[in-house]
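Data card: per-record layout.
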Amino acid sequence: MKVNDQQIQQLYKFTRAHYVEHFDVQTELVDHLANDIEQIWQEKPSLSFDEAKTISFKKFGIFGFMDVVAERQKALSKKYWKLIWSFTKNWFKLPKIILTALIFSLFYVVCKNSYGEYLLLSTLLILCLYLIYRGFILKRKFKQRFVETGKKWVLEEMIFTTGMGTAFFLPVNLFNIVNLTNFEHTISQSNFMALLYSAIFTFLVIVFYIAIEILPKKAEELLTEQYPEYKLVLKAPA
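The structure for this 238-residue chain is written out next.
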């Protein structure tokens, strides 16, 4: 026997009932359950669909689908950081390398300025305020996408929400570097340290910008690449 379309939809409801929120993880589990149920039916054809489903589900152990969800999130977290790194490398190629050099030079001038510490802390404040604003916009957009499609994807949520944690890495580290070191004395005594700090700040700004601006704007392209069925689901009614 084969699992029919109606039973496939029941399996989707079953995974949602067991706290699997993301459509891509649901699909992975539904495929696994459907194949396993068909194998069970080959051995015990008298079993009902619900009985075979229960047997299949018990094979996941006492934690149910939690391990599968965790593994999927771990794998796509690596994918997310690969995307960050991929876009970051592009900033060290023409023409973006020119902008990178300008950002670096600006930080170096600020570091060597007698008011450098205050200028950098002011930058921190501006970045934090912008992060709050951008976070609100991205979270609202993510919710809107979910309302329109009725589905969410692990990588999609990372791009629109987890990215804010990535971006927050910049102001936190900028604050730590400026506030927890003898910044003014260190910079005034060493051009090398001024260059090093400028390079760190430049790198963090690039990561910040990629996480909250570039990846969200390229979300549909990136998600279609990751999930071939994404556009079909996106166009389908919720």
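Known properties of this structure: The mean pLDDT is 84. The two ends are 30 Å apart (CA to CA).

See the next section for split statistics.
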